[in-house]
Amino acid sequence: MAELQLSTKHLLGIKYLNQDDLQLIFETADSFKEVINRPIKKVPSLRDITIANLFFENSTRTRISFELAEKRLSADVVNFSSSASSVKKGETLLDTVNNILSMKVDMVVMRHPAPGAASFLSNHIDANIINAGDGTHEHPTQALLDAFSIRDHFGELKGLKVAIIGDIVHSRVALSNIFCLGKLGAEVMVCGPPTLIPKHIESLGVKVSYSVREAMEWCDVANVLRIQLERQDIKFFPSLREYTQYFGIDLPLLNSLKSPVVIMHPGPINRGVELSSEVADSDQSIILEQVENGVAVRMAVLYLLAAPRSRSMMGT
Length: 316
Ligand code: CP
Fold this sequence. Notes:
Bound molecules: phosphoric acid mono(formamide)ester
Number of helices: 11
Strand content: 5-15%
Helix content: 25-40%
CATH superfamily of the largest domain: Aspartate/ornithine carbamoyltransferase
Largest sheet: 5 strands, parallel
Number of strands: 9
CATH architecture of the largest domain: 3-Layer(aba) Sandwich
C-alpha cells in the first residue's frame, strides 16, 4: 500500500483528489470490505475520534452508510437533522456547526442543498469535512463507491466504457462520476434529453448522446440516474411517461444488446421511470453491491482522513 496519507485534509469533491488518493482509498476499502464480512465487523481504528453527521437534506443510503462505517471503526457518532433542529429557528450554517464543534467534534460529514456548502465550511472550521452531497455539485463518496464497484466487477477501470444516463444537469453523482472515472482511465458518455444535459459538458472530456439505445450499445456499464423533480422549478420534458418511453431502460432493450451491460443506480430508484423493476432486479444489476461497497469505501475515507489526527493523538 502507498503511504497512508491522502493529499487533502477534507473530502470536498473528487475534483481535488489525485490518482494516488483514489488508489489508496480503494486499497484501504479492500481491507475494510474483508473486515465487514468477518463475524466481528468492528475495528478500534477511530476509537478516539468523534464524528458529527449533519444532514440538511433527506438521505437514506448515505446517512446510514456513513453511520455504519463510523461505528464499524469504533468512532463516537452524533447525528443532526436540520428538520428537527434550531436551523428552523433561523440559526446560520456556521453558528450551527460551530456550536456542534465546541462539543469537541473531530470530523464532520455534511449533506446540504447548497452547492459549495462543504467547501465554505472547510474555510471556517478546523475539523475534517466530508461532503456527503452538496446540491447539484458533487457527491464524492458516491462516485468512489461506484468506481470501486466497477473495479470489483471488472478488475480495473482503465479502458472501460461507462454511460451515465438520465438527469445529468441536476445530478451531483454525474459530476463526481465524470471526474472519478476520467482520473481512473475509463471513457464516459452522458445520455439524456438535451434539456437535461449541461451545455459544454464535452469540455469535461465526455461524449454526449441523446439516444439511450446508442448509449447502451456503446457502454460496458450503465449508471442510471433518477429524474430529480425536487430540483426542477420548470418543466424539462413533457411528462414522466414520455421520459420513460424515450429514455427508460427495460428488459427488451437490455436483452436486445449485442454485449451484456452492467446496470448501476445510486438510488433512490424511481421504478418504472428510468429503470423497469425487471432491469433493476436482474442479474446484470449491481445496485445492491454498490450499497454494500459504500460502507467499506466510507470506512476507508474516514480512516484515511483521520490518520494524521490519530497519529498526533498518539504523539507520533
Ligand atoms: N445515493 C444517495 O445519495 O442516496 P441517499 O440520497 O438515500 O443518501
